[in-house]
Specification:
Elements: H1 2-51, E1 58-62, E2 71-79, E3 82-91, E4 94-103, E5 109-113, H2 127-139, H3 141-155
Antiparallel strand pairs: 1-2, 2-3, 3-4, 4-5
């Protein structure tokens, strides 16, 4: 009788470990499935739309790495010495937009903006830099609106 009780205890411990292992596997599968549907899938749709459309812009879509939330879409327009990039990053339904403006041999200027091309101040303490970026953004507002409009049409950004 003693050996049967020991076997029941061992079997019970085995069942508990098996249930725990199964629950952990289901949680991991759920996390991966959520990541694939909510984070990675939108980038596949962007790639399909870009392939189907021809415009005067260069596109590059970088999907998020496995279980990462950061993927990027770069839209570039080059006119001689002038280049403007729009980088769109997704992270949990939040989009981050950055305009990078390069003119001639000058250094590039990266300006964080919202979806309405309003400057987002990230350098609160440096008033001179903030005013300079606002001035540059206002100078290139037509080009910025054009590239944002193209991104809305091609990528279906809402």
């Amino acid at each position: 009788m003693i050996s049967m009780k020991a076997n029941k205890k061992e079997l019970s411990a085995f069942k508990k470990l098996f249930i725990l292992f199964t629950v952990v596997v289901f949680i991991i599968c759920g996390v991966v499935l959520f990541w694939y549907i909510a984070i990675k899938q939108p980038y596949n749709r962007y790639m399909e739309r870009i392939v189907a459309t021809e415009t005067g812009y260069d596109y590059r879509v970088r999907e998020p790495r496995f279980l990462s939330t950061r993927g990027e879409i770069d839209i570039k327009k080059s006119d001689g010495d002038f280049k403007i990039y729009l980088e769109i990053s997704h992270a949990f339904l939040k989009k981050k937009y950055e305009l990078t403006i390069v003119e001639g041999s000058k250094d590039s200027v990266t300006i964080p903006v919202d979806e309405n091309l309003n400057y987002i101040t990230e350098d609160y303490g440096n008033i001179e830099m903030r005013k300079e970026k606002e001035k540059i953004l206002s100078e290139y507002m037509d080009e910025a609106e054009e590239i944002m409009h193209t991104a809305d049409i091609i990528l279906g950004l809402d």
